[in-house]
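Moderator note: this is an archived Q&A kept for reference. The question asked for a predicted structure of one protein chain; the sequence and the answer are reproduced below.
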Amino acid sequence: MILKKVNTPNGIRYKEVFFAGGIDINATGCTVTTPDGTSYDLAEFWAGPGKVNSMAGVMTAVIPAAGDYTFTLAFSDGYEKTITDTLEDTEIDLPMPFTVEYTSGGDTITLSWEAVDNADLYCVKVTELDMAGTKPLFKLAQLPTTETSVTINIDGGTGWMRPTTDLVTGVNYWVAVAAKKVEAGAEVDGASADFQTSSTLQTQITY
């Protein structure tokens, strides 16, 4: 379970994001139950077989309750496993101020942000406005906390997860930077889902 913190036009909002995985895990039929008893279905997403998630929770101005989140995972051989992940009563600051320099039709996007105390890494993304179930166009999953700026070259090279031809002239996209903190004892790894919290700032650009 990852606590996502986002600065929106309506103020800071929080959202629960859930991930699970394993060899031969079912694409559907897995669930997670929150400390208050709310249950969400987990399903396979763009990352492919062996990984399931849910982003069904709603953005709220109130930080979700700390406590145990219970995952019930089903596998193709009929085995079922129950595990818990504990959300601690903790969060980190947003990487603000956050600036993006881009001119429509340009070749680069330059991002810069303020360093965040207690962050373990930064992640930069370019996504479609409707991110649900959609593979990011661009992602740098693990920037060290010594870096507070990055220039994205629109050339299909490093960081691009989809062809740049997927970008459509005149269409708006999200550009985002997230400061992430891993769970206590977990390895600092941008490919991991073992994050305690992710504090995200995003802005729209028109390609």
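Archived answer notes: The chain has two domains: 2-87, 98-206.
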